[in-house]
Structures are given as structure tokens and as C-alpha cells.
Design a protein that fits this description.
Number of helices of chain B: 2
Strand content of chain A: 35-45%
CATH class of the largest domain in chain B: Mainly Beta
Distance between the termini of chain B: 67 Å
CATH architecture of the largest domain in chain B: Sandwich
Number of strands of chain B: 10
Largest interface: A-B, 40 and 51 residues
Structural class of chain B: alpha+beta
Oligomer: heterodimer
Radius of gyration of chain B: 25 Å
Order of helices and strands of chain B: HEEHEEEEEEEE
CATH architecture of the domain at 24-73 and 86-121 in chain A: Sandwich
Number of domains of chain B: 2
CATH topology of the domain at 24-73 and 86-121 in chain A: Immunoglobulin-like
């Protein structure tokens, strides 16, 4: 990276999902911020899902649609009263359509400090063969 | 002023009731926005966003800090305030990584919160689980509610 100077983090309000399909369980649904990058062998997806426990995360790859959803357990604040509420909690939900063929059996998902790291290995393509044309 | 707004050079004379309806709609929209702003709380514009709650013994400050390890946020307390500072670093990915999306951000942050009452700084506890920071600040005896018996 060329710029070594660290900038200040800006406040970003959680983006609420505006989907046509309604939720069965009421409550806000947010779109997690994600990074997606690709190397020769895999596609990696990183998503910020603070408050999601690994067991409450659901990743589903069907055909070429990747769906991830995570439930946030509301903090145990039943006996507490609000003084200031700047952010809300709810489900995280996001879908991506993948253009590459993914090796389903080797998908690796990790949840660490509220960040999901999903590694989607590409199916190994047949190594390109060079065909020499003979004169004859 | 009213006469002028009732005459639209393209569509001719508009109904004065239509104009009143438009104004009423705008007013309603404005009051909706105002209500939304009030229920959401005062917008500070400083990262991280926090939720503050209290029970009879403690104040609780919660913030979402995904990707921060336990030792990273720098938390300091005063008699009635809390400061959260730190830096969010996104690890460098391999050189051959080609990005499709880059929505997550890195950078420094520092935020100060003033609590409505005094706290006991020595008994303050903080934990960071699954990217959510929870700071528990016990109220000082002077700011705890006291039951007063009527004699």
C-alpha cells in the first residue's frame, strides 16, 4: 500500500435490507459490509457481523447463490433502561451470485471477533494443454 | 407569494387545495423525520456508535467493534466519563488478491462519553465478545438511587 497514514474511521450507519420478501420474525435486517477478493485458487469473502456467534451463523451455497445470515442475540439488558441508543441490532443477511464454480466440499468458514472469513475454493480446472500442430 | 405559487406557467392555474395538500404532506414528512431523529437518539457522528443503558447499580456502554482483538481497544474512565480509542487494522491479504468489493474500512477512532452520574472507575470492567464491546461501569454510591422511607 502506498499511503501509510492511517485515517480516522467514519461513522457508518448500518444499512438496512430493503427486500421485497418480508421476514417471518419481525425485527430489523442489516446488510453486512463485505470485502471480496479472488486469487487464482479461491474467492475469499470477509463480512463484518458484530454480535453473531459462530453457532448462529448460517451459510448456504445453492447453485450459484451464496446466502449468509446471522442472528444477533440481543444483549441481556432486560433489567436495564436506555439512556442513549445509537445503533440497533438485528439479523444480518446478504446474498451473492457467484460466477465461478466452487468446490462445495472444501468451503471454509471462520468467525473471529465478529468478522466472518469465508474461503470458497475454485474447482480445479483442467490444466491448459498446449497443443502443438505438426506439419504433415 | 401565494398567488404566484398557484400559477404554474406550464400547467396554468392550480387548485388552491392542491397546494394546501402539498404543504400538508411536506409538513407531515417533516414531523415524521423529526420523530425518527428523536427516537434514534442524538446523532454524534463519532465512531463507534454506542448504546448506553443503566440499571440501579451500573451503567452499561456497548459498541460494535468487529475485527478488534480483546487487547486492542484502549479504554479509560474518569469520575463520570468513558473514553474508547483504538485502531482497526485490516490484515493485508496476499499480493495476488484481486478485489471485487472493498466495503470494510480501517482506521483510528476515539470517542468520549459523558455519563449522567458518577461512577467507580476502579471497578469498571470491559469485555469484547464477537466484536461487541461491553463496558460495565458501577455507579458511585452518590449516584445510586436511594430509597427514602416516609416516617
Amino acid at each position: 500500500m502506498s499511503d501509510t497514514e492511517t485515517k480516522d474511521l467514519q461513522v457508518k450507519e448500518k444499512q438496512e435490507l430493503s427486500d421485497s420478501a418480508e421476514q417471518i420474525k419481525p425485527g430489523p435486517v442489516f446488510v453486512p459490509a463485505a470485502d471480496i477478493f479472488e486469487t487464482d485458487s479461491n474467492i475469499t469473502l470477509l463480512a463484518d457481523m458484530p454480535g453473531v456467534k459462530p453457532e448462529n451463523l448460517d451459510i448456504d451455497l445453492r447453485e450459484d447463490t451464496l446466502t449468509m445470515s446471522g442472528d444477533v442475540e440481543p444483549p441481556d439488558d432486560s433489567g436495564e433502561s436506555d439512556l442513549l441508543r445509537e445503533y440497533r441490532t438485528g439479523r444480518y443477511y446478504r446474498q451473492f451470485t457467484l460466477s465461478e464454480v466452487i468446490d462445495q466440499s472444501k468451503i471454509d468458514a471462520r468467525m473471529n471477533d465478529g468478522v466472518l472469513r469465508l474461503i470458497l475454493p475454485k474447482v480445479e480446472k483442467a490444466t491448459p494443454r498446449k497443443i502443438t500442430v505438426k506439419v504433415g | 407569494m401565494i398567488m404566484r405559487s398557484m400559477f404554474d406557467p406550464l400547467r396554468g392555474w392550480r387548485s388552491p387545495f392542491g397546494e394546501a395538500e402539498r404543504m400538508r404532506r411536506q409538513l407531515r414528512h417533516f414531523s415524521d423525520e423529526l420523530e425518527k431523529g428523536l427516537t434514534r437518539g442524538r446523532w454524534s457522528g463519532v465512531f463507534p456508535l454506542i448504546n448506553v443503558t443503566e440499571d440501579s447499580d451500573n451503567y452499561f456502554v456497548r459498541a460494535e467493534l468487529p475485527g478488534l482483538a480483546t487487547e486492542e481497544p484502549d479504554i479509560s474512565v474518569t469520575a463520570n466519563g468513558l473514553a474508547i480509542a483504538g485502531e482497526r487494522n485490516l490484515p493485508d491479504e496476499s499480493r495476488e488478491a484481486k478485489y471485487h468489493r472493498k466495503e470494510r474500512e480501517s482506521g483510528r477512532f476515539s470517542r468520549m462519553v459523558t455519563l449522567p452520574g458518577h461512577i467507580d472507575p476502579s471497578k469498571t470492567e470491559a469485555k469484547l465478545t464477537d466484536g461487541v464491546l461491553t463496558v460495565t461501569l458501577p455507579k458511585a454510591a452518590s449516584s445510586k438511587p436511594r430509597q427514602i422511607k416516609v416516617s
